[in-house]
Amino acid sequence: MFYKLAADAVVVAHLLFILFVVAGGLLFVRWRWIAWLHLPAVVWGVLIEWRGWVCPLTPLENRMRDLAGQAGYREGFIEHYLLPAIYPAGLTSGIQTILGIMVIVVNAAVYGYLLSRTRR
Hints:
Helices cover 72% and strands 0% of the residues. It is built from five helices and no strands. The model has no long low-confidence stretch (mean pLDDT 83).
């Protein structure tokens, strides 16, 4: 039971990290120091998408599932949990490139807007 809960906790942490990568720039409004954590997370998220790397949380979750007697999965977190809901056809390198670009564009827009507001 512990390992199943641990695997589920890793999934929640993984999802929260992805949300932080995509929208963490909004926290900059309240806490300016968050940029020092957020910008490296954005770089990591984009590199994971563009290079096809596997996030270390995926093997950790799989290990916890193995120890719980459950089946793990081969693909990454996004392919396993998010893409079936968003893209029924599956993940391609083109989609990964688009996801990386979207992360950059969203965060550049957020930081650009917030920095322009602070300069006024």
